Amino acid sequence: MTNILAPENSSQLVDAVRSARADGTTLEVIAGGTRRGYGRPVDADAVLDVSGLTGVIDYDPAELVLTARPGTPMREIASLLASRGQHLAFEPTDQAPLWGGAGGAGTLGGALSVGLGGPRRPMAGGARDHFLGFEAVNGFGHLFSAGGKVIKNVTGYDLPKLAAGALGTLCVLSEVTVKVLPAPADVATLALEGLDDAVALRALAMALGSPAAVSGAVHLPYGADGLGDGPLTLLRLEGVPVSVAGRAASLQTLLTEVAPRARLIGGEESRRLWRDVGDLHPLQGSAEDVIWRVSLAPSAGAAFVAALPEGLGGRHFYDWGGGLVWLFLPAAEDGHAAAVRTTLAGVSRDGHATLFRAAEAVRRAQPVFQPLEPGLAALSDRVKERFDPDRILNPGRFYGKV
Amino acid sequence: MLMPVPDKAVMEGRDAFVAGLRVLIDDGLIEDPAELSAYSCDGLTAYQQLPLAVVLPRTVEEVSRILRYCHERDVKVVARGSGTSLSGGALPLADGIVMAMGRFNRILEIDYDDRVAVVQPGVTNLAISNAVAHRDFYYAPDPSSQIACSIGGNVAENAGGVHCLKYGMTSNNLLGLEMVLIDGTVVRLGGRGLDTPGYDLLGVVCGSEGMLGVVTEVTVRILPRPQVQRALLLGFATVEAAGNCVASIIGEGIIPAALEIMDRPAIHAAEDFVHAGYPLDVEALMIAELDGTPEEVDHLIAEVEAIALAAGASYAKASTSEAERVLFWTGRKAAFPAVGRISPDYYCVDGTIPRRTLGEVLNRITEIGGRHGLKVANVFHAGDGNLHPMVLYDSNIPGQLEAAEAVGAQILETCVEVGGVLSGEHGVGIEKRDLMHRQFGPADLEQQTRLKCAFDEKNLLNPGKVFPELCRCAEMGKIHVHRGALRFPELPRF
Ligand SMILES: Cc1cc2nc3c(=O)[nH]c(=O)nc-3n(C[C@H](O)[C@H](O)[C@H](O)COP(=O)(O)OP(=O)(O)OC[C@H]3O[C@@H](n4cnc5c(N)ncnc54)[C@H](O)[C@@H]3O)c2cc1C
């Protein structure tokens, strides 16, 4: 049975990492454990469970800053913020059910380490943009701090950006500080009906290029729960009520020619709808499906999907105005890696495709994350080595040695 | 300010080294001391140093060749944009060359569908906004130096501006970079999509003060201009009251596009200079800018005004035309030159504090200045707690420069003491380098310098800046050996 280490404070965490390093023991770092199926499988000697590092340390709404231990459940953070009319603007999603887990089990540290932003990403930024500072233990077993606890800071290297999305391969977080923002008072969604992909993405680009301050731009070719299964293009507007209504009206005018059929979806339903989009509900198919997450230039989104080989037989939708494509494809031996990555290379120079969910055997055989060109791969490897020289933290979760 | 001792071998081999450079770059090499002096300092003019030579490359191949050449010969390199850094980031080194990026001055592509601009690093910040203005787009980060500073310098410093409360700093608006490492390797980070595969190196290169690589191409987001912008001038009897008003505005869920405060000396200097119509009988003046649709802005202006009056504002005036809005800003934007008129010299400090400590910190700033016989005028990016105290002095009076620097250092120490940081937007450079240990412990600095080693193991890119001690790249010798076996023996060790 795998040994489980469960530190309850940062000095126990230091001890755990130090003794692992001394013994040459590799560690799989988990908190909520909801995303163990994300990334390459980690074959570690022991599990370092940091879910015991919990609790909010400081929260001053007027300073727009919250400091907490990383094992604090997201649920707790969200309800604390909501009690003061605030939220995490990067809109962390709750995708655990995609791996068969229970909803609402994620932690703040997990959300930052996975680093994915929700539908508000194009306007409000991702996890990286809201991660202000941290304390962590690196692979040397040293406790160190980085960043700060104020919203504007350029002192020293911006290590929080590096730790965001690093999947625990650089250091183990013991305290994190994030930026928090007022939650919008009102929300509405302009829903355009019946558009094909290319026209829909055109409409999204027009909306994002207008002064309407759109804070969500998705196209669901197969509709959404409760809204039918025809193509649905959604534009979210948030803010004070007078402004939301006004912007919705001017957007509708702007788009009448490309999208004659449109209707407005109000507050409560909008909130549910966007939560669903972030959690990938519109595509929920078989638990066996492989899921690809493809990030690329928004204008290349529809061309990418159109260029996929015929007969793949999957479903897709677009977020981020077309800059993020989610693909659900039937299980296949290579997870369709060759088809997806070759197609992507043909339409976009800097796009990247992640094998978001697939059976363990597939994730062992295929690169889960987009292979990096050699100069960048070597650099990434050196970065890893300068945080974790013996490669004891989540070894191989990203790439071969990282 | 102590800089690393110049490398004797490099100094002695200068002629041969420069002769070799000449082969690599046919036109664009400056070696004459009189011409070199134009590059001897940046915006922190108290520090001057002639470099070995200046190169002005035009292509990424030239940049790569020159860096590889320097790397092979252990010669240091300081990249330079427009030289407006206020922290000495672009100060040359006696045993190094300056690589000035001014010839990388082309806008390569503007794409309104993807809402990005791809530009060379020597393009000025304002030139990006100007290039897209006819389509009602703009580039959001707006440092006061925007007519002069380069986007490459903005990336290196993670520059901010008055609108970053709502729209973010450079790093939040940066999508991609092409960069050359010191050994000549060209890497591309990010692109037109919103996230990058693998480690977010784009995020950590931004704000790294020219120490990780030389940026040769920059992709930024451009945004549609808001339909309407209106500004509100609010006067208060105390700076504390103005600070509390900021907390109330944000507490009500409003994030204005900009939220600035000036104190009495700054108000008077600015008003005397540009006649912006500021009230002169207040201790603090706030400028709040709201943007969005007309109905939204009217609504928010009324709401902010009501909050301010409830918070004790003694003066309130909203702009009723675009001309008036611009007028309100002229005073704030001219605050630096305005202060330059009332004092022979001034030293601009840059730190961030938790806003709740504004009143306390301001009193301490006055006190610190007083102890050294110097006056301080203050402007703040109040929304995000970023202070710019301007210490007034006269460099012709012996001892005053040193006194001004001491006041600056004590102000920054105060910022850290109350929970803030040494720099909100100007960077550490040489200016705040020796204060870094006030904010960071040894383990914190060690991890940062290790990151530097991953990019630049020989420590040749802009050394002597930011960190009080150079990185100890040789520490890898301490690698743990388990039962005589190195883990991953196939990996190179440095
Ligand atoms: C009057 C005035 C007002 C200012 N107002 C603001 C403000 O409001 N907000 C703000 O943030 N700053 C402000 N600044 C500071 C300064 O303008 C910024 O730091 C700016 O980003 C520097 O750009 P630059 O092109 O002048 O860079 P430089 O001064 O030439 O260099 C700055 C740093 O960037 C590095 N660098 C430059 N180009 C490259 C490149 N291509 N690749 C790698 N490294 C590079 C240099 O090595 C150096 O470390 C102000 C300065 C002045 C003089």
From TrEMBL, chain A:
Documented EC number(s): 1.1.99.14
Keyword ATP-binding tagged: no
Flavoprotein found in the keyword field: yes
Coiled-coil zones: none
Keywords: FAD, Flavoprotein, Oxidoreductase
Domain FAD-binding PCMH-type: 1-183
One Pfam short name: FAD_binding_4
GO molecular function, one term: glycolate dehydrogenase activity
InterPro entries the record matches: FAD-bd_PCMH (IPR016166), Oxid_FAD_bind_N (IPR006094)
Family matches, as NCBIfam families: PRK11282.1
This protein's name: Glycolate oxidase subunit GlcE
Name of the gene this protein is made from: glcE
UniProtKB/TrEMBL annotation, chain B:
All copies of domain FAD-binding PCMH-type, residue ranges: 47-225
Protein's organism: Sphingomonas quercus
Superkingdom to which the source organism belongs: Bacteria
Keyword Repeat: no
The UniProt record lists the keyword Zinc-finger: no
Name this protein carries in UniProt: FAD-binding protein
Listed InterPro entries: FAD-bd_oxidored_4_C, FAD-bd_PCMH, FAD-linked_OxidoTrans_Type4, Oxid_FAD_bind_N
Keywords for this protein: FAD, Flavoprotein
